[in-house]
Please model this.
Amino acid sequence: MASLKEIRERIGSIKSTQQITKAMKMVSAAKLRRVQQWIFNARPYANEIDRLLAYLVTRTKREVHPLMKDIENHSIKNIIVIVVTADKGLCGSFNHNIIREAENFLNRNKDKNISIICIGKKVRDYFQKRISKVKHKAHPNILEEFIGFFNELRYDYTSKIMNIVVRDFLDGKCDQVIAIYNEFKSAIQHRIVVRQLLPLQEIPKEDKVKNILIPYLFEPEPKILIDELVRKHLDVQIWRILLESSAAEQGARMTAMDSATDNAEEMIRNLNLQFNRKRQSDITRQIIEVASGAEAIR
Model:
């Protein structure tokens, strides 16, 4: 059994750790509130662009813009996968679940040539260390990596990602762009999303009917507007992906730190109980020794 000094030192160490987890929980809660506000502010703009683009598509053919062309599944050979994780840990299974979903996607597409855009240090480190162990016909390669985005999120970050995927898509270097990320639901709930960014997916029929009844006058022509709107649409979607992932990360970290704080409190209670029992045992033993010594002297 540990000595009283060792138990006391361990209690002090756990209390110090508990103070850190409490502070991290408070920081994550503050960041979560800020990112949530950004998400709420971005939604009206994103929804209006989607609505306007949907209406334009009803007046033109999907072939009018190369980013909207239909591609049969059997003709998809080259895929770019954007995987979004955090730069740091201590957020429960947040990073692990995303990486596992990315591995599952790679396993489902072993016959494809896959390039990965890593957003977040955790996914970059993972694929750098283990990419050679993934059994594919053509091993996936890291096309680009973006580290430190979430320290200070800015909208202009999205243009860097959008320009890469649009350039490769238009040059014929990739046939499909997929994003894998965590979608924020609440502070204690988020879900993994596997979403196709390019080519743009077909507009739902109900949206076509709803939007075609809205009277718009366009200047310039819809075909010219589509090129600009498609790029803005991608910009906004990537921005929302970064915001959703950031909010989900902060929610996961806040939950993890709250659980760690509770666990530390439970450990401190158990150690205090162990400390008191040890001290009582030592006192009892010392009393018995003194009594035995006094009896021996008599």
